[in-house]
């Protein structure tokens, strides 16, 4: 089904009318309760129950790699360094290793980091669910 057909579908129009009536026509995004898992969000997106969701880049790349009808955009909203930083788990008591890793990470620009992460996600083993 083409996007325009999904938009103009009677069920979608009725759901939109209900959403407008229930929020009394308030402008902005209609917030929904959080879903339990990314697969649940992907299913809801694919079925038309939701129009989109917010994910970390690796999750978006993975979802698109396994669902050809999905894509992702990089939004223009501002996020703090704490919300977007990289984390590396290490055993405690290794300050020289922490310093070495931080030095390496500091030398990787955003484009290179995204390329590394995208390749890692696309080359991960597929689970046997």
What does this protein structure show overall?
- The protein is mostly helical.
- The protein folds into two domains: 31 residues, no CATH class; 89 residues, no CATH class.
- The chain is 53% helix and 0% strand.
- The chain has seven helices and no strands.
- Helix 4 crosses helix 7.
- The protein is elongated and about 60 Å long.
- The two termini are 28 Å apart.
- The mean pLDDT is 78.
Task: Give a quick precis of the structure.
With 129 residues, the protein is mostly helical. It has 7 helices and no strands.
How are the elements arranged and paired?
Elements: H1 3-8, H2 10-22, H3 38-47, H4 57-66, H5 81-84, H6 95-106, H7 110-122
How far is it from the N-terminal to the C-terminal residue, by CA? Answer: 28 Å
- Proportion of residues in extended strands: under 5%
Main sheet attributes: strand count, strand direction, barrel closure = none
Q: Count of DSSP E strands? A: 0
Portion in helices: 40-55%
Structural class: mainly alpha
Low-confidence stretches are: none
Q: Number of folding domains?
A: 2
Question: Mean pLDDT score, rounded?
Answer: 78
Morphology call:
elongated
Query: What is the number of helices?
Result: 7
The sequence of SSEs as H and E is HHHHHHH
Radius of gyration: 20 Å
